[in-house]
Amino acid sequence: MDIHDQPTEPWMNRDNEPTNVVPGTVVTPPSKSGRISRRALFTGLAGAGAAVAVGGVALAEWQQQSHSSTNAIPGSQSGSAANARIGHLLRRTGFGVHPDDLASYTSLGYEGAVNKLLNYQQVSDQALEQRLTTAKLDLNKAPSQQQWWLLRMAGTQRPLQEKMTLFWHGVLTTNYQKIGGPSVYTRMIVQNNFLRTHAFDTFDNILLGITSDPAMLFYLDLTRSRKNAPNENYARELMELFTLGIGHYTQADVTAAAAALTGWHTKGGTSVAQYNPRDHSNKEVTFLGHTGQLNYKDVIQILANHPAAAAFLCRKLFTFFAYENPSNDDLAPLIDTYNKSNHNVGAVMKTLLLSPQFTSDKAYRARVKSPTEFVVGSYRALDAQTSGKELPAQTTILGQTIFGPPNVAGWPGDKVSATWLNGGTWLSRLNYLNLLIAGGRSRTSVYKPFDVQAAIEKYKIDTPETFVTHFSSFLLDGVLDEQRKAQLVSYFTTPDPHSRKGNVTLSNGKSYPLSKVRGTLYLLMASPEYQLN
């Protein structure tokens, strides 16, 4: 083989573009101290390629142990500060940032952006609904259900509603593999639509709905519970994992709740639930200090009003949307809102999003993106135009199967985000980026390359510096120091005589190798900051 047919870098293909990374690639481990500076990580990315410069374990360690002032939102008086605040808001309340979204929400100001996200009913999502209808997906099949939901996340104009639906799916957990078999897989869609419709409802109504949900009835065996033989599974998880947490109830409370919850059943092989008063236990029980002939409505009312429920829910919300291990002081305003608003989740979310903690340096890029956030966010950011058939496999490869949490406790990464990353999932993230940018074939789909030329023409990109500034503005909040920007511009402008992919022409008429342009975008998205939410 002629030397000119060899890649110019060990991580580049013969056209000098980033290659798909395969398991087994050597990665740099964390230092003995467990700390890796952001500068060192980026320098490695730019110099030797993301695949060999940093591993998922190193990034997770860095994120978990070295969250320092380098993660701070830029000074409040700078233009980049508003950009970063809105970018942070859109990542946390949705799935990535598209340049058009960034411009639209920034024009509203931070509080106006929050109001638009919360008042999603005022925003039409008709175009998405039409696209999903046109797709004619068979929602009786699990892969099609996953495709349907991931396309919703990618295309919605109501990002916070969809993000809340994902939050509830990870808290009030159900797995499609245990809801009664393939003939009733539509139970997952029924549940998903309920969670979406009631995403900002009162906690009481959400708990009432999930208690009578067909998928949940089967998943936690409430449909098998009879007045003469109450099943305790749902009663126990309702308190331990859904409302109170360990330490706030006893086995006697589990037994009492199980009796009070009898009467709900799935209706044969359908996605319908029904309440049968004749199969409800009327025996007197004492549940969390309340004595009487209680039913499921009584159980939910007692739980939603329990002092531990407010702290439990608010801690879940704060951890998912802001940062891990919140203090009691962090949670106090949310708990106060919960109690004063009659347990309204929308009101609690408004308090959270407008709190100083949410936009603090401690919250900024404090969580590793979940597989769903990473896959859907990258798909949205680059305007990927596919059927979405490949999306379920991508999130699964990265460690998150939609509609299939590992157990009733949900995904560990929702609680400790660093667990989303390891050497294998990190490399899979890079493979996915390469497919989105350069195109290629996955196991389930063929990706068209990202149309760099179209983006240049749409946003009137006239210089390499403008290219880096434009893409970093929504991919990295524009938080890119001059040295790092210079590295990317230098890479962009370096000649590539061996590339066979042609050129890209900027709006000033000057052309550059397509391989270098794509490679610059790849380096931006393979950077540590892009992996963090």
From TrEMBL:
Residue stretches of biased makeup (Basic and acidic residues) = 1-17
- Give positions of region: Disordered: 1-24
One Pfam family, short name please?
DUF1800
Return the protein name: DUF1800 domain-containing protein
Q: Which organism is it from?
A: Dictyobacter alpinus
Organism lineage reads as: Bacteria, Bacillati, Chloroflexota, Ktedonobacteria, Ktedonobacterales
